[in-house]
Task: structure prediction
Amino acid sequence: MPDNAQRAALCDRFRGFYPVVIDVETAGFHAKTNALLEIAAVTLKMDENGWLSPDETLHFHVAPFEGAILDQDALAFNGIDPHNPLRGAVTEYEALHAIFKAVRKGMKDASCNRAIIVAHNATFDHGFTMAAAERAGLKRNPFHPFATFDTAALSGLALGQTVLAKACISAGISFDASQAHSALYDTERTAELFCEIVNRWKRLGGWPLPQPEES
Result:
């Protein structure tokens, strides 16, 4: 099948949305005041038969923005030392500019008209991504301003689980708890989980939708 047919399949699957899996690690729960410390993004692709799979991965350690509040309980939980020079941290602008550029290219290649964040408990990751983009002054934000695909909700429906690790295990996806709470690891597992749920729905006969009979 030619490339343009493959692109049409992805844009048709999600009503023109281009799904991008995002995970963030932060210094607290408040997107406006707590620092974004790590972000990873996985774009997705669809083959000629309509099966969804992970595509490109981007990952950045992020330096706290000036005046950011660093909650010590949050840092103890994720194990991040924001001031460790070995992190190779970049600014919020550098991280999101690179991600947005890759997403816009993927959108164009897939003939999609808007990107949408896929995340586990997506409100959290969406809020931090949007707040950081606003602080960085990035005007060409490709993501929908409020809509998301939440794999916690989808997993609850498809697998009876809402915790990422348990949902992955139920879906037959390996999950190493010792690597959890790394943005890169969690994003890669979430991408696999989302693809499995979408593909499982296809295997069960739920997609493509049956065409209505002509009267």
